[in-house]
Design brief:
- By secondary structure, the protein is of the alpha+beta class.
- 28% of the residues lie in helices and 36% in strands.
- It is built from seven helices and 14 strands.
- Strand 7 and strand 8 form a beta hairpin.
- Helix 1 packs across helix 2 and helix 2 crosses helix 3.
Length: 239
């Protein structure tokens, strides 16, 4: 997995300039930064080292990775826009003695340590949603199964401080709800970051602590609802 390098404000200005043209010479890029020649040269050299720009004769242009990075810019503010986390949420169902049970996890890492919820996992770069669901199921539970896409759930989490004031979003998550009713294999009781159990929804009704959105998420995944959004607020000490 690659990680983007942080760039200086002057370098951001250069990338923004090149975002709106096929190429530019040194004078145009220097003007965009508002810096003296030596300082502008330093920042252009740094962008070349990072691989965000390329030089052809006397013209500079964005590289493939530079186009990808610059396209994330808020062109008015000149900063990289923060993006929601994209993940899968697994609704895994089985039937035992005529009673439906669902795979749930108790989280054993921060944030929300100790909370109960459905298994989730981030979508990796270049991975399909179905691949993510299958990988997360195997990694965290040891099970395999066939998934169908049941909908999208968008959750924006804010925290409430001791004075009762609600702050700006702390988490912004887009979950693809993935349903599996044919899982097989030996369930791993624990994994790094949590533990797994099969539970009926009735037995989860009074479980605490659990995510505020748990009941809704399970219902959406079981019924199949194309799109749902929900803002949630937690007390800051529970995060």
């Amino acid at each position: 997995m690659s990680h983007e390098a942080s760039v200086h404000d002057a370098q951001t200005k250069i990338l923004r300039e090149l975002l709106f043209m096929p190429g530019a010479n040194f004078a145009a890029l220097q003007k965009a930064t508002g810096l003296e020649s030596d300082h502008a040269k330093f920042h252009i050299k740094r962008l070349l080292e990072l691989g965000y720009i390329v030089k052809d004769d006397k013209m500079y242009s964005l590289s493939v990775s530079g186009k990808e990075y610059a396209n994330k810019l808020d062109t008015d503010a000149g900063v990289i826009e923060r993006q929601p986390k994209v993940a899968v949420m697994l609704v895994v169902e089985r039937e035992v003695d005529g009673q439906k049970e669902y795979l749930v996890q108790q989280r054993q890492k921060q944030p929300f340590f100790g909370y109960w919820g459905a298994p989730t996992g981030k979508v990796r770069w270049g991975e399909t949603i179905l691949e993510t669901a299958a990988r997360e199921l195997m990694e965290e539970t040891g099970l395999t199964g066939t998934f169908t896409h049941r909908g999208v759930f968008h959750e924006i989490v804010r925290l409430r401080d001791e004075a009762g004031a609600v702050g700006e979003p702390t988490e912004d998550k887009i979950f693809h709800l993935m349903m599996c009713a044919d899982s097989s294999g030996q369930l791993k009781a624990t994994f790094e970051g949590g533990r797994n159990v099969w539970r009926t929804l009735a037995s989860m009704a009074d479980e605490s602590p659990k995510y505020q959105s748990f009941d809704l998420e399970m219902d959406l995944g079981i019924k199949g609802v194309p799109f749902t959004e929900l803002p949630t607020v937690y007390d800051s000490h529970t995060f």
